[in-house]
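Researcher: Please generate the 3D structure of the following complex. Treat every line as part of one assembly.
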Amino acid sequence: MTLWWIGNIVLLLVILPVVVVLLRGVLEAAKSIVPSVQGIATVAAAGSEDLDAAALLLTTQDQVQQTVAGLANYGGSLDVILDDAERR
Amino acid sequence: MVAVVAAGVVMILAVVLIVLALVYYLVSTIVQLRRITAGLDEVIAGVGEIVQKSAPVNDVVTAINAQLDAGVDLLEGLLVQKAGLHDAVGLVDGMYPGAAAAGLRNFPESTEIDAPRIGEVYTKGALTLARLGREAPIAAASPAGAVLRNVEGGSLAARQLYPDVRHTSPENLPGSPVIGADSPTQYEQRDDIGAPRKRLPARRP
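Model: Done. Output below.
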């Protein structure tokens, strides 16, 4: 009978507090992860929006190609013009 | 009997308390884990968009760089071909002071050139364009304005184009040639000097 009471006391004063402390630790750790994950999600969304202009690189590539082609034509014409002018 | 019942009640109460604590904290943990899962889903979606949008960037930027490299090669080649490497370095340094130290990309020897102060006078290309007439871009800018370069008083700028010419460092140049009868080198030597005197034809009495 005495051992039963001792077991009850141990159950109430030792086992229950230990279980509560351990579970609270797990819960606090899980709660601390949530803001970090939400922050990462916000940053990822912002980064994705920042890359919306990446599609314009195709237009930039086309324009650079046209510019270099025009530069080549202009350089060739300038080469001929300078040669003619030096012969005069 | 009463003591046994009381001990049993206390034990059941303790077990119920433990189970309640387990339920409360475990359910709270499950809720937090679900929020974490939802947040990670948003992260995965955002990262997936980033990966998808940035996938062609590498190839496009590489192609743009290759095309710009071709443009730079074209301009450097044309500049060096028309102005010469020496004046080309001076022209680039005139437009971008200090750029002569970096030199031209396709001409490594350009870094060793002492850049002329070509910004003080006009380049060969500019003068050639100016000679083309009013249709030339350099003249079309101000066809009725003052002359672009004072050809009478602008010789100093032309002489200062190169830093190591006679007027800046005469001690490094060879002396003027000595001329005259006693000069060590006789120029335009006559063939008849020292030769037998020609006999004149005899006079008739």
